[in-house]
Amino acid sequence: MPEIKKEVERGAVLTSEIEMLLELAPSKIIGITGSDGKTTTTTLIYNILCEDGYKCYIGGNIGTPLFSKIDEMTPEDIIVLELSSFQLMTFKSSPDISIITNISPNHLDVHKSYEEYIEAKENIFKYQKKDNIIVLNYDNEITKELAENTKSNVRFFSIRTKLDNGVILDGNEIKIVKNGEKTSVIDINDIILLGTHNIENACTAIAAIQDLVKLESIKKVLSTFKGVEHRMEFVRELNGVKWYNDSIGSSPTRTIAGLVSFKEKVILIAGGYDKHLDYTDMGEYIIDHVKILILMGQTKDKIKTATIKKIKERDIDLSLPIFEVNSLKEAVDVAYNNSVEGDIVFFSPASASFDMFKNFMERGDKFKCFVNNLDNSLEK
Asked: At the N or C end, where does the chain have fewer CB atoms within 10 A?
């Protein structure tokens, strides 16, 4: 903004509530960023720390502004922050424990380039000290390579590779590995959250705070935590059909992660505001995991084109009904009228919400309202 630029030129300091919190708070700070999984990982870490007896504060992209609470914070407390790429862009300091869950193309309607987006994420560890910790995803090529850019202590997590040091998935168990020695933390069958991506989120949280808490606290939270609203959220079962709200699914990677969480093919409702993302890979997953596709919003043509292109490339005889609708209410009605007992309706837009809604929360609330108002007595 011209006004802000003018004040900076006159000597004003451009900063933010989060940056001032990092500079002035006496407490240990844990910061979490990434393209997917930020909120769930942040909430898991916060809940585990609280279960273990810490006094904690949660903020950043979620919760309430924390700057006004600095006076009541102590060195024994822990602050847990979810941080977006926009918040990180102007950082000149980094948290004590930093986390990047993963990086994939996102917010390209705002960032000048994918490179700028990645550079913003890097700021979460760029100013760390040697004794600080950075937690990175070994399975994500970009975050794996970022380890070369840090002087702090790197902790990897992986669900695909058996690391000699880090947090891994070994069979059905999540384990902490130190110099080849493995310590079992939890059987993934005891974790309530659906999906491989949530196993990754659990591994991320464990990697970050394994030295701060007891294993019992980790196990208790992971075996009882039902998830954050609008993230693979079970809404209801009606006439044998299960309805799930994943309104947070604002990018193809998020929706793909949700699709592979179900054993059976789903009825997918997708589409929304166009952030200039590539839907090519999503088309592949739609073919393998979707039985009926319902599209709306600015990106409906992109998703439809990507899906049809993949069907042609694979040269398969696939009968995939595709419906194009003009509203979320219409999408819910079409899903209801075309579902049968045993089906799953999965609302995961793979797009932002701004073409029809203020944010993903309003979008998810509307979806739940429409689903909960469906009448058992309606004739199909």
From this structure: N
